Structure formats: C-alpha cells, structure tokens
Amino acid sequence: MEVSHVELAEGASGERSTPKTTPQQRLGISINSASRRFTDKLGKFDTNQDGVIDAAEVAAVVDELVKEQALQRVYKFVAIGLFIVVIVLIGALTGITWAIVEMSKETKAWAA
Predict the structure, then answer these.
(1) Domain span at residue 8?
(2) CA distances from 104 to 67, 97, 99, 107, 110 (A)
(3) Which of 3, 51, 56, 108 has the highest CB neighbour count under 10 A?
C-alpha cells in the first residue's frame, strides 16, 4: 500500500483549500497499490471512487463502527431484558399451575 501526501494551500481568508490532485498526490491509502486481498476490502470504503482512501473516508468508517458498537450495546440490553421477561413469565405460569393443582385437590374427608 502506498501512502502519499500533498501540502494544502492557504486561501486569502486563511482557510486551507484542497487542491485538485491525482490519487498519487493526495494524503491517503492508494487502493491501486494494495494487494488484491486488500483492494476488495478497501474498495468498499472508497466512497468517491477515486482510488484513494482519504481521511474523510476513514472518519466515515470510524463513525460507522462507533454507531455499530452503540447498537450492539442496545441489543445486548434488549436481549437481557427479554430473557428476564421470559424467566418471570415461566415463574408466573408455574405458580398458576401449582395453585390450580392445589385448589383441585380434594382435601375434605367424609365420615363414613
């Protein structure tokens, strides 16, 4: 993989502007110089299809991963909550079954 760099020119207002560059001049990871194994995987992250994974595209991937981790935490709590609900329902059904069995027993002895 090839990482290349270009200096950004400062405009009149003091802001940095991005010059028009080729993939070899920009700061980023050149997909073309990567092995075939990495080319397929890195191609998914190259949103503007210019052959270079730049800082904005890396930031987008990191943001996506952070959101995915947050969702995993939410799913974990939902799964734990559902498990607790199932356990409580099983306990309630067991208790109701036990109460019905106890009520249906014949407990009076008749004198003969």
Answers:
(1) 1-53
(2) 55, 11, 9, 9, 17
(3) 51
Largest CA distance in the chain: 114
* 24-28, 35-39, 42-46, 59-63: which is most confident: 59-63
Number of structural domains in the chain: 2
Rounded Cα gap, residues 42 and 20, in angstroms: 22
pLDDT of 3 > 80? The answer is: no
Report yes or no on 111 lying in a domain.
Answer: no
Nearest one of 10, 47, 12 to 28, comparing CA atoms? 47
On whether residue 91 sits in a domain, the answer given is: yes
